[in-house]
Structure formats: C-alpha cells, structure tokens
Amino acid sequence: MKAAVFGTGRVGQTIAARLAELGHTVTIGTRDPETTLSRTAADAMGTPPLAAWAADNPGIEVARFADAAAGAELIVNATNGSASLDALAQAGAENLDGKVLLDIANPLDFSNGMPPTLLVKDTDSLGEQIQRAFPTARVVKALNTLTAELQAYPARLPESGTVFVSGNDPAAKTTVTEILKDFGHQDVIDLGDITTARGTEMLMPVWLRLYSALGTPAFNFKIVR
Amino acid sequence: MKAAVFGTGRVGQTIAARLAELGHTVTIGTRDPETTLSRTAADAMGTPPLAAWAADNPGIEVARFADAAAGAELIVNATNGSASLDALAQAGAENLDGKVLLDIANPLDFSNGMPPTLLVKDTDSLGEQIQRAFPTARVVKALNTLTAELQAYPARLPESGTVFVSGNDPAAKTTVTEILKDFGHQDVIDLGDITTARGTEMLMPVWLRLYSALGTPAFNFKIVR
Fold this sequence. Notes:
Two copies of one chain form a homodimer. By secondary structure, chain A is α/β, with parallel strands linked by helices. Chain A has a single domain (2-214), classed as NAD(P)-binding Rossmann-like Domain (Rossmann fold, 3-Layer(aba) Sandwich). Helix content of chain A is 38%, strand content 21%. The interface between A and B is large, with 39 and 39 residues. Strand 11 (220-224) of chain A pairs antiparallel with strand 11 (220-224) of chain B.
C-alpha cells in the first residue's frame, strides 16, 4: 500500500519505518522538506533530526504534505494535534478525498505547563474536527493511546494490550485494523463512529499521570473482559 | 472498621454489603431514611428499592448522612456525582474531619442525553472539589473506573485488572489500598495527589463507549507494563 506519514517527530518516524519494514511504500510528509532536512539538532522531545533518520531509512522519501498525499492510499496523521488541521489543509482536500486517514494525534495544549490539558474534549474531538474539515476523507482514530514504540511494536510489552478504532467508514476501519494486526496488535476494539474518539483522546490525562507514576511510557491499556 | 457508605444506589448497596461481608461495621447514609425506605419501586438504573436490600442485609443500618458519618472512621461517597457535594455538606464538615473519605463518584451530566458528559474535567475534578470543600477530610479517589459488581468482586473477571488511588494523604491511600486488596484487587496504582483524579474521572467517556461496544459493563482497565 502507498502511505504518506505526516509528521517528522517520534511518532511519524516510528510509524513510517514500521510501515516500510512491512513492505509498504512510504513517504514522509512535512511542511518544508528542505528546512526540515537541514536541521541538525534533536527536537524538544529528544527525537533525532530527520536528516539522520532519513539517512538510515533510504527507502523512505521526504516530501511536502501535498506531494506525499497525492499518490497515497493511506494518510497517517502523526503531526502535533495543535497543528494537524493546518497540515491536512496544506495537503489539500483533493489529495485526501476517499483516502483512509489514520489519525494518531492528540490535541494536547502545553500552553499552561505540565501536564498538558486538551484543546478539545468531551463534546468534540480532534478526530471529529478532521472528519468535519475533510468530509470525503475516511478518518479512523487509532493508536493515540500508547507511546510511539509500542504503537509500532506492541510485542515489546510482556503481555498483549488493547488498541481502539473509531470512525464512520467500516471499510476504512477494516483497513486500519489489518495494519494494526500486522504491527502485532492482537486485541483491536471497534468503539463505533468517529465521535468515540472523544473517549480515547480523553485517555491522555490518565496516560500522562501513569507515565509519571510508573516512570516509563512503556505501558498500555488492556481491556480485561 | 466503622464505615459509612453514602448513597443508596447500586454502588452504595454493593460496597456496603461487601464491607459488611469483610467484617466491617457499616451504616448506609442517605438524606431521609424514612422516605428512602418507603420506596417500593426499583430506581431508574434498575436497582432494587433500599427496603428490600435492607431486609436482606439486617446487619447494616440506614441513617441520615450526619448520623452515619458521626461514628465512622471511613466515609465512602457513592452518591451521584452531581449530588455529592450537597450530600457531604449535609453530613457536616465536623463529621468528616480527619476521616478517610473514599470518593467513588463520577461527575456525570445526563442533562444533554446519552452518553453523558462530565460536569468537571481536565483542569479540575470532583475529587478535588470535595477535598477543597472539606480540607480536613482525607479524600482518596478510587474505584470510579469500573462497574459496581467488579469494584467489590474483581475476581469475577477472568483476569485481574488495575485500579487506581489518588489523594494527598499517604496514610489514607494506604488504608484504601488495603480495603481494595481485601476486595480482591491485586494491582493498585498510586497515581499521586488528588489532582490525578482528573485522569481517572476522564476515563468515563471511553468506559461508556466500551460498555456500548462490548454490550456489557463487565470489563476493567488493566495497565500492562
């Protein structure tokens, strides 16, 4: 499958490499490839600069959002939640039309310090905002409930956890679920339509507190039943 | 331990009976015992009327909030989240002073239909509101993340899940954790101070969606790590 991964941070790098490893043709989408590739320092989260990562992943192209999206069947939104709508607008609605849009972003607001709060919650979600802004994209919210490494390599935990899909298009959810299973996720719960993304985005506050209490992001929610 | 359980709904009945079964001396607290005991119909959630339950649990007294709280070492808030602050005010701050106050309530707002939203969230929580209103009570938020039966009898799930404690008083959290272990909870995570109740109260939206997707409330979150 041809995939465009939007976002050059830890999540974007990790998901892009994992998709390529599984045989997909992957392009990383970013605002300005020349500028992004000219950076030599790690970002605020300690993620290596994209140029170093791209050198290690020669099969993955880096392109502007619109160019990355144009030929892709699958778009992965791994941008910062506060910048996602703008990034997708730069890609152009015509390049998202009919595409499966896997939205991993969380709408975190760091403007009032740590822990971040949510820019949207409870009566709306980033997943819904994206679906409303791009009504012909087939948005599926998933993977926003665990750390990047475990999104891509869930078997690195000693026990299988649960991941969730939310979206209005059943076929798009099936496509995403197959990718999740290829990643190694054994338990995927379909929560329902895209409004159920409110629930998984609102997992972030307890996720952040668990990160602090456990001293590691290496954990996942499992729904025991 | 002498315990007062506030609330006559499913959670109050279940927790009161479980505490009594474990040897504690339990009083159910309610606004007006005569009126509550005169009801003969099940409530909106299908919970049997208190009189029938009281007849099955002759060792458990029913009393006004203040009378129930006066002699208790442990207060359990199992009232509706929208009525909790009022119920605790009726108990009287002097009757909560120095007591361990286990807060199980969720601040759900049903006024806009289903699924309910949260009356308070993200930058505050019901647990914090209670702690601020009764600064000498030792508030511990716990058990608000699973259905009543599994709060009291977690071993009825095929696999052990996780429960959480949030509170400012370490000794109160230890007391609550011991009760949780007596109930059968094997994995109790101390999330930190009472502000971490924001995280567990914000689990409600995904809990409600999971209830709908799974068709049963018989599930729990487990933190795999």
